[in-house]
Each structure stands twice: as C-alpha cells, then as structure tokens.
Amino acid sequence: MVNWLLMALPLSTIAGLLPTINKLTLCLKGGNFDPKLGRDNLQASKAGLDTENFAKIIRCANAESNFYENWPVYAAGVLAVNFTPGVPRLACLGLAYGWIGARIFYNGFYIYDKARLRTPAFMVATTISYALLVTAGLNSTF
Predict the structure, then answer these.
(1) 80-89: long-range pairs with CB below 8 Å, 24+
(2) How many domains does the chain have?
(3) Which terminus of the chain has a lower count of CB atoms within 10 Å, N or C?
(4) By C-alpha distance, which of 21, 113, 87, 134 is closest to 126?
(5) How many whole angstroms separate alpha carbon 136 and alpha carbon 142?
(6) Is residue 119 part of a domain?
C-alpha cells in the first residue's frame, strides 16, 4: 500500500518553501518583490532619504517577517514522528490534520488582506496535503 502521508509531506514542504527561497534570493540580490515598495520608495525620496538603502531595509524586513509562515518545517517534523518507532500512526496523522487544518483556517481568515495573497503556494500546498492526508486516513488501518 502506498503511504500517502510520506508522499504528501515532502511535496508540500518543497512547494511551501519555494516562496521563501524566492523572497530571500530577491532580498540578497536587491530585487523588488513588494508591491508597496514603489510607493514607499517615492515617499522616501520626497523626504530626502537614501532610497537605495531604504529599499534594501524594506525588502529584507519583509522577507524576514515571512519566516513564521514556514509551516513546512512542522510538516518535516510530522514526517520524522511518522518514522519514530512506537508512535501510533494515528497520532502522526492527528498532528498533520491539526496543523494543515489550522493553515487552511489561517489563510481563509486573512483572505481579505491582500498582503496575505502573496503566498498562494502555501494555500495550494496545504490544500493538496490535506486532501492526501484524508486519502491516507480513509485507506489505512491504524
């Protein structure tokens, strides 16, 4: 029998980390990934501030503030629990269901906040993981 949990978590981890890797790369290269940056940069210029340094500070601060969304780290932890001898599979699935459910609620709750829409990969990966975990729960014996 295919262990869907073992397939879902690594795939969701990779998909979930892509936005963060992209943001950090842009931050290090000095690229612009913040839609508000153009407006903020203009305001900084009018105020006589060094716009280049201002832009770097804003970009790096934005990238750093998104580290809390690295829920794939938790997914990797659940995967590790799955391999720990003596831990019931039901407990592992319970952890995964709980976290993925919380992620869906979190993204749904903040859907009105357009700034949160910058992380659609998190929603897609979370939803796919949740569906695969449901399949695993329906097709497994504990």
Answers:
(1) 82/5, 82/6, 88/142, 89/140, 89/142
(2) 1
(3) N
(4) 134
(5) 11
(6) yes
pTM of the model: 0.31
For residue 77, give both structure tokens: 């932890």
Q: Which domain holds residue 21?
A: 4-26+68-139
Token digits of residue 16: 């979930």
Is residue 93, in this structure, part of any structural domain at all? yes
Q: Is residue 41 part of a domain?
A: no
Over residues 41-88, the pLDDT tens digits come to 555 555 555 555 555 555 554 544 454 455 555 566 666 666 667 767
What's CA 83's distance to the chain center, in Å? Answer: 23
d(CA 24, CA 43): 24
- Whether 113 is covered by a domain: the verdict is yes
Residue found under tokens 């014996």: 141
Measured CA to CA, the distance from residue 80 to residue 91 in angstroms comes to 12
